[in-house]
Write a structure and sequence with these properties.
This protein is mainly α and about 375 residues long. Helix content is about 50%, strand content about 5%. It has a domain at about 1-115 and about 290-325 and about 340-370. The protein is built from 12 helices and 4 strands. A 4-stranded antiparallel beta sheet has the order 2-1-4-3. A hairpin with an 8-residue loop joins β1 (about 80) and β2. α2 (about 50-70) packs across α11 (about 305-325). The N and C termini lie far apart (about 40 Å).
Amino acid sequence: MSALDSDRRRDLRASVLLGIVCLLACSANCRGAGSGDSPPAEVDGATKATGSADLLAAAARLASTRVKADQQAAGYWLTQFTAAARFDAPHPEMNTFLTAMMIDLLDPVAASSGLEANLAGARAHLRDQIEADGLVRFHGRPDAPTIGTLGCRITPDADDTALAWRIAAANLELRPRALAVLDGYRTREGLYRTWLAPRERYECIDPGSDPNPADAGIQMHVYLFLEQADPSAARALCRALPAALAQDRHWVYYARAPLVPLLRLDDLRRAGCPLRPPPAMLSTTVEGQEIWLAIARALAAADASSDASRVELLRTVAADDFALVRRSPPLLYHNDLTASVSRYYWSEDFGYALWLRLYLATARGARVAERG
């Protein structure tokens, strides 16, 4: 499914792995191995800290290479879904959500990680998904070449519309249309429903007990769009969110996958809407996911968490050629757990992106140091 053919992708990975082997084998006089894309580590005598810094710098180059290699020619990244809450027998699909989240996650470090051109391509793809009515669909435009193979013609929805407009909007003449439709799906509680069409016009949707829920995570995406496009509506939504986030019924697509809401809490705080959901809403019982939540927490508390704890997270995820990413990538969301079909959605590329964000946050201003 990669935009690069398999041979070229193997060559890309092999070239970066060769740099890692060199770093493992060399001593202090191996200074300069690898490219200068990542923050350099001073070599002051082959100390343990310096060796760790060099290895993590090489891992950062590898993570960036994989993100580049996995991006499709059209600008998007593929998501993988499974039938159960374990990364087993995954199937690929194209959706606009992952591409938007990758842009959000990588934009602050695009220059440092050499991904500026990749994000520009991703934005162009996302911009093209905004239709004439101002709305966006999870699987993209209904006439896209991926429909029928990597997705289906599906009803427009609130969070993908909000994400595309905030991240990649171009023709602002269409924005009032999108805002008007969103407002038409606002509940009496001041929240926004998922699907932007009446039930009889649903396409490619397997509804659960509530056919059009006001999901907690979706409210966060919508808030960030409204804060940009309609501040008064954003303030109203912010006032409604504390009560909503405390209720299980509003955790529909993230009940077992709190990573995205956890990341969004820091975005909302910086956008003027600090929230404190009950801790139980931000925990998971899905095996292998706690480390991704730990990285999200470390990013939100970058100034408070210690270098040692962050470095340990980085080393754990990067170990054995990022084996953990391939074995148990981040679980981004799932479908309604009361629906007739079970779907869990994962992304290795989001794992590499999360790792890069933490690495560059840790390395910023000083070499990465291992303590103890």
